[in-house]
Design brief:
This protein has one domain: Rossmann fold. The chain contains twelve helices and eight strands. The chain has an eight-stranded mixed β-sheet, sandwiched between helices. Helix 6 packs across helix 12 and helix 7 runs parallel beside helix 8. The longest helix has 18 residues. It starts with 7 loop residues before the first strand and ends with a helix.
Length: 273
């Protein structure tokens, strides 16, 4: 089966909503795709479908149809800008922790049968510190915490890291700062987060970089277009293109996995709940 090849699984999470997580995930996927990577976005905000709306996609089906056994995974995944693939969520889909044994097995079987080549799976989790968010983060090889300079975003980012460390023993986190006014502003956000985690938690924070505040981004969101395509010369686009190289090679300590392994881990965690 072709999809048995090693892939990267990266969960992008935030402690609170409104920090631009889905927008960053969508544009990051496009930047990676342009570098020759084959990227699939899993919209893991199972109760609110956001990625397809942001990218002006109109999927006929969503992950609920797979869970219910109505459609194959290949029928549900849609192609987005620059050739990225998106597995849409749907409004009203129950959390993974609430799926019954048949539904979880169905999901696993479909990922086992999926044959398209994928290099990187980006998981756009829902905001907050729910059990569902934790499951997607822990099942992934890498966890990227997205925050911004707002005090509430910083506090909630720490809360998420604390939950993942104290309940699930996660110790490795990569920090990406969004909407920073300058590099110094972003580094200060990282410093503040590092100070509190060093004091209270035994975790490692790796600073990935930042995406600057860009007043053109709301225009791209309203137009339902990626800012990388609508404003390729904008500050946010330039910064994302510079930092995307840090996503191309995984940290050495991360063992390579497969798409099937990721889903298997996810379901095993839910079964053990």
């Amino acid at each position: 089966m072709r999809n048995r090849k090693p892939i990267r699984t990266i969960a992008i999470a935030s402690g609170k909503g409104g920090v631009g997580k889905t927008n960053v995930v969508a544009n990051l996927a496009i930047a990676l795709q342009k570098m020759g990577k084959k990227v699939l976005i899993l919209d893991a905000d199972l109760g609110l479908s956001n990625v397809d709306i942001l990218l002006h996609l109109a999927p006929r089906y969503n992950i609920q149809h797979v869970i219910n056994g109505e459609k194959r995974l290949s029928d549900v995944i849609v192609q987005g800008p620059s050739g990225i693939k998106v597995l849409p969520a749907s409004s009203g889909v129950q959390e993974l922790t609430h799926l019954d044994a048949f539904q979880r097995m169905r999901l696993l079987e479909e990922f086992e049968a999926y044959e398209d080549d994928i290099d990187i799976l980006l998981i756009d989790t829902s905001a907050g510190i729910s059990e569902n968010v934790a499951f997607f983060c822990v099942a992934s090889q890498e966890i990227v915490i997205l925050t911004n300079p707002e005090p509430t975003a910083l506090t909630d980012a720490y809360a998420l890291i604390k939950v993942l460390f104290t309940r699930y023993q996660e110790k490795q986190f990569r920090i990406l700062v969004n909407s920073a006014r300058s590099a110094a502003d972003a580094k200060e956000v990282y410093r503040k987060l590092s100070v509190v985690t060093d004091r209270f938690l035994n975790v490692s924070l790796d600073y990935l970089g930042f995406i600057p505040y860009d007043k053109s981004i709301p225009d791209a969101v309203r137009a339902q277009k990626p800012f990388l395509q609508m404003f390729p010369g904008g500050a946010a686009s330039r910064a994302l293109n510079e930092l995307v190289a840090r996503f191309t090679d995984p940290p050495e300590e991360n063992a390579k996995g497969t798409l099937q392994l990721f889903i298997g881990n996810l379901i095993s965690m839910a079964d053990a709940r």
